[in-house]
Every structure is written in C-alpha cells, then in structure tokens.
Amino acid sequence: MSITTRTPARPARLRDGPRAPGGRAKRRPRREREGAAWVFLSPWVLGAAVLTLLPMAVSLYLSFTDYDMFEPPSFVGLRNYTQMFTEDPRYWRSVTTTLLYVVIAVPLQLALALAVALALKSVRRGKGFYRSAFYAPSLLGASMSIALVWRALFNDGGTVDDLLSRAGLDIGGWVNQPGWALLAVALLTVWQFGAPMVIFLAGLQQIPTELYEAASVDGAGRWRQFVSVTLPMLSPVLFFNLVLQTIQAFQVFTPAFAVSGGRGGPADSTLFYTLYLYDRGFTASHMGYASAMAWVLLLAVAAVTAVLFRTSRSWVFYAAEEDR
C-alpha cells in the first residue's frame, strides 16, 4: 500500500506587500502613512489657512494703517491704538458696557440652565420633549428676527410694558430707558440657556447615585447634597460652560444692534464692543481703527480665559486627581 503525501499549501500573500524574514508583513514607511494623513487633512488645512489665518494676518497689518476701504492703506504705526486708549471716550464706554453685560448675563444664564437641568433630571416621562423645547431658544435667539421681536416686547407699549403697568410698575419701554436697555439685552441672552442646560444635564447624569445615598445616610438634606456632592462633581462641566459662555458674551452683537437700531442707544447704554467696532469699520469707514479694536478684543478675551483657567485650580474638582 502506497502512502501519498500532500505538500502543505503556501499561505496566501498578504495584500500589504512582501513578507519579512520572520513571516510578518512589512509595514508601510512612516512617510507614506503621514502623506496619506495629510491628504485627508488638506481640506481643513486649506480652509484654515485661507479663511482664518490669512484674514487674521491682513487684519493685523490693517490695524497699523489708516484704511477707509476706498483708498490704499497708509501705514500709521501705533496711532490707532493710542487714539483708542487716550482719545476716544466712546471706546471706554463700550468696554464698560460689555463688561457689565458679561457680569450680568453669564451668571444668570448659567444659574437658570443649572436649575432647569436639575428639574429635568428627575423627570421620567417626556424628558426628550422638554429637553428639545428648552434647547430651541439657543437655536433661534441668535437670529435678527427674534431680536426684533424681543425689542417689540420691551418697547414702549409692548407686552412687557403692558404687564408691568397692570401690576403697578409703570417703567415705560425698557429699550427707551438708559437704565433698562442693557437689562433687556441681557435677558435675551439668559433666555438662550438651552445649550449650557443640555451640557449640565449630561454632567448630572454622570454623577454616581451612591454619593447621594451615602450623603443621605449621613443626614444631609437636599441643599447639603447639592453643595457637597452636586457642585463639586459638576465643577468641570460648570467651568466648561463658564468659559464658553463668557467668550460668547464678549462677542455679542445681534441683540444690541436690533435693540439700539445699530447706534448703541439710548445714551450709549447698549454700545457693546462689537457694535462700536462695526460702527467704526463699516459706518465710519475707519477699517484700520476697527482692526485694531478687533485685536484688542482678541487679547482681552484670551486674558480673561487665562484668568479663568488659573483660578479654576482652586474650585474645579476632578475625580481622577482624587484617585491618585
């Protein structure tokens, strides 16, 4: 009887290329892999260079020039900056108005967003509907149409004025009162609390229920649980919302433009920084001056953000640091 032997089949060659002496497929060269990555990143890199970096470079150059958008720019050095800080009282009014707006609007918006998030956390039915309903103002509030409706509500004889008059508070139209116009714009920002609310709600759902159970066993009430458990565990999310909303508040434009008719009135009470920048650049055709204002705003926002990050070390709690 003869015994037939079969030659073992050769393993199929891998698609990656020839095999190394040890039997492993050769890896593609590093430069080839990096080249493929840059091919996929090229649309973003091109867009960032053309639409962001190049306009920033042009704006920085224009900030040192006298440019009216009709004649070629002429180099004037630091004259725009010195005029801004020493010769323009309206500039400092715009700075004061913007800072006051940030101090009023951001804390109120975050407090309302956190309160609604805490209320929605305990809702069992219809949570998706309520979340969408409260988030809708964040999508609509930045439009000019909503800002015009808001002006009509707070105008003389508007809905708010009528309701307050029936309650015995005859204030008049808020948008026509220098002491109330800024508050009307701030309330529009507070009304757009949907985005930070959703982030707060996501953070609340990540807090372990065991912490609340342990606090309850120790005799802590709802307020004590909120102060000792919720706020420390939610502090990273609170810090994120604080930075994000502060940066957005410094750039507010549409509500102020709609309420004041683009002039910052009454009595410059709604003369926000970006509104005055728009007035200098596009109304007065001082584009060089407006470019200088834009760069000062960029540096100011960066400084405020750096201060927030610096001070966060004393009040932001990270669970990973506690485990070390």
Key traits:
MetI-like_sf; mainly alpha; globular; 2 strands; two-stranded antiparallel ribbon; MetI-like fold; single chain; 324 residues
Question: Quick summary of this structure?
Answer:
Keywords: Cell membrane, Membrane, Transmembrane, Transmembrane helix, Transport. The chain is mainly α. It contains 14 helices and 2 strands, in the order H-E-E-H-H-H-H-H-H-H-H-H-H-H-H-H.
> Number of helical runs?
14
| Element string (H = helix, E = strand) | HEEHHHHHHHHHHHHH
The best one-word shape is: globular
Low-confidence regions: 12-16
Tell me the radius of gyration. Answer: 29 Å
Q: Helical content, roughly?
A: 55-70%
CATH architecture designation of the domain at 96-269: Orthogonal Bundle
Average pLDDT metric: 85
- For the record, the CATH class of the domain at 96-269 is Mainly Alpha
- Spell out the CATH superfamily of the domain at 96-269: MetI-like
β-strand percent reads under 5%
* CATH topology-level fold name of the domain at 96-269: MetI-like fold
User: Major sheet, described briefly?
Assistant: 2 strands, antiparallel
**How many runs of DSSP E, i.e. beta strands?**
2
- The class by helix and strand makeup works out as mainly alpha
**Largest beta sheet: what is the strand line-up?**
1-2
Report the end-to-end length measured between terminal Cα atoms.
73 Å
Topology:
Elements: H1 30-62, E1 65-66, E2 74-75, H2 79-86, H3 89-121, H4 127-140, H5 144-153, H6 159-166, H7 181-191, H8 194-204, H9 209-217, H10 222-250, H11 254-260, H12 273-283, H13 287-311, H14 319-323
Antiparallel strand pairs: 1-2
Helix pairs in contact: 3-7, 3-8, 3-10, 3-12, 4-8, 5-11, 8-10, 10-13, 12-13
Main location: membrane
Subcellular location: Cell membrane
Biased composition (Low complexity): 1-11
